[in-house]
Design goal:
- This protein has 119 residues and is an alpha+beta fold.
- The protein has one domain: GTP cyclohydrolase I, C-terminal domain/NADPH-dependent 7-cyano-7-deazaguanine reductase, N-terminal domain (GTP Cyclohydrolase I, domain 2).
- It has 4 helices and 4 strands; from the N terminus they run βαβαααββ.
- The longest helix is centred in the middle third of the chain and has 15 residues.
- The protein is elongated and about 50 Å long.
- The two termini are 17 Å apart.
- The mean pLDDT is 95.
- Pathway: Cofactor biosynthesis; tetrahydrofolate biosynthesis; 2-amino-4-hydroxy-6-hydroxymethyl-7,8-dihydropteridine diphosphate from 7,8-dihydroneopterin triphosphate: step 3/4.
């Protein structure tokens, strides 16, 4: 088994409960960790024998482009889509961070993290 991590995928997205957030948007980062079997690809050196991290990145970027009120909803969509499209993955951890959130204080980021296992 093995782990593939994509760190600090940056997007400009329009999530949030406030009307202004849907209009002006904000900076976000997503961290993704997936568990899969890397033994075959470690021997074959062939992309078809592993999980393509370009596909993982594109799923994150596409889902971040769909507006949601809650970060939890975005994270759930990312988890669901990865499990649907990549059957070799057995576990996913996704963390979605809103940078400089409008919460009336000096807060660098708000992050939600979700972990799911293939059922």
């Amino acid at each position: 088994m093995g782990i593939i991590k994509l760190k600090n995928i940056r997007t400009y997205s329009y999530h949030g409960c406030l009307i202004e957030e849907g209009k002006i948007g904000s900076d976000y980062t997503v961290n993704l960790e997936v568990k899969t079997d890397l033994r075959k690809s470690s021997i074959s050196d062939n992309l078809k024998d592993t999980v393509d991290y370009v596909l993982l990145n594109s799923i994150v970027v596409e889902e971040m482009a769909i507006r949601s009120d809650l970060l939890e909803h975005v994270a759930h969509r990312i988890l669901t889509r990865i499990f649907e499209e990549i059957p070799e993955i057995s576990r996913i951890i996704v963390a979605v961070s809103k940078l400089n959130p409008p919460i009336g204080g000096d807060v660098e980021a708000v992050t939600i993290e979700m972990e799911e296992y293939r059922s």
